[in-house]
Specification:
By secondary structure, this protein is an alpha+beta fold. The chain has 13 helices and 8 strands. The mean pLDDT is about 95. It binds protoporphyrin IX containing FE.
């Protein structure tokens, strides 16, 4: 890992190796919250993370502090529900079949729409992944990844990102875990299915790749996971001050050394509640997509 530190200006720790990422994510001296504190650049980054991941003053679960009881309870409820669902492949069958067909046809837009439907229906069976909701979700994703200040100004003038967040909140009935799922998490799943479509179209012997190997090859981890020090003191990254920031490139770490432990941060308190569901879904989709045509859709059963 690397530390960039200039007094009053910046104090950042950057990590992109899986062992570092996993230990930093689990380090009890690091948290989230992203209050505007510390040196100038840290305050700017923390403000950007917090405003991007907040809707009408309420933070999305992936920036909420470790000890927040409500977050912990929801994370554990979702983990139980999603793990049970993974065991019985209880996701929406129609969306599943659409994803399989879209992967076979290498149709990116349909992959995105069908994945959005499947993820939304994990929370509410009546959810529909429409083109308007997809646009709102992609707008939030672009805003979170944006580094262009002119574009940020444009968005705040037009209210585009604010409207996108309101749309996502409305279609999720205000459930912030569902907003996280359809506005943020869904993009990692879509990217994984796109890799799957690519693997299928370029690999003449695709059917010989086992579902387990396919998951290793296609699973896409979040680009960045961030942590903030709240108190002064020692950590795995050295001695930190309030506001020191840790930015972990989970995607690069996962790509160099593929493992669900890194992709879903399973050793950390912030473990993704879908850590069993996503690999089970990817395996089933791969099995169905590589089945010779005309042999039915029983792979999802
Ligand atoms: C390829 C797919 C996915 C990957 C690689 C992934 C990975 C992650 C990671 C690394 C975190 C922790 C972030 C942090 O420490 O700040 C996280 C959090 C979370 N993920 Fe996922 N995720 C995926 C899909 C999903 C899906 C499909 C859902 C829901 C249906 C989901 C729901 C959540 C939630 C609610 C949290 C916040 C947990 C909390 O801290 O309370 N994820 N995910």
């Amino acid at each position: 890992m690397r530390r960039i530190r200039l007094p009053l200006l910046i104090d950042l720790i950057l990590a992109d190796k899986s062992a570092d990422v996993r230990s930093l994510a689990a380090d009890p001296s690091l948290d989230r919250g992203f209050q505007t504190r510390g040196p100038l650049v840290n305050r700017m980054i923390a403000r950007r993370i917090r405003s991007g991941m907040t809707i009408m003053g309420i933070p999305l679960p992936s920036i909420v502090e470790r000890d927040d009881r409500e977050r912990q309870q929801r994370q554990s409820e979702l983990e139980d529900a999603f793990t049970a669902m993974a065991g019985k492949k209880g996701w929406d069958e129609e969306s599943f079949d659409r994803i399989v067909a879209a992967i076979r046809a290498d149709d990116s837009r349909e992959i995105a729409l069908a994945t959005l439907s499947l993820v939304g229906k994990l929370f509410d069976p009546a959810f529909e992944g429409t083109k308007h909701t997809l646009y709102a979700s992609q707008t939030l994703d672009r805003a979170l990844k944006n580094r262009n200040p002119l574009l940020s100004i444009w968005w705040s003038m037009t209210g585009e990102v604010r409207h996108a967040k309101q749309k996502l909140k409305k279609v999720s009935s205000g459930d912030f875990a569902a907003i996280h799922a359809i506005g943020i998490a869904v993009h990692n799943l879509v990217a994984s299915f796109e890799r799957m479509a690519d693997l299928l179209s370029h690999q003449s012997a695709a059917s010989r790749i086992s579902p387990e190997e396919a998951v290793v090859r296609v699973l896409v981890a979040p680009e960045t996971v961030a942590r903030q020090a709240h108190k002064p003191g020692p950590s795995l990254a050295g001695v930190l001050s309030p506001g020191s920031l840790v930015l972990m490139n989970t995607r690069a770490a996962q790509e160099a050394n593929p493992s669900s432990r890194t992709a879903f941060l399973t050793d950390a308190w912030s473990i993704c509640p879908a850590h069993q569901l996503v690999p089970a879904l990817l395996m089933s989709v791969w099995s169905a997509a590589t089945k010779p045509a005309g042999t039915g859709k029983e792979a999802s059963q």
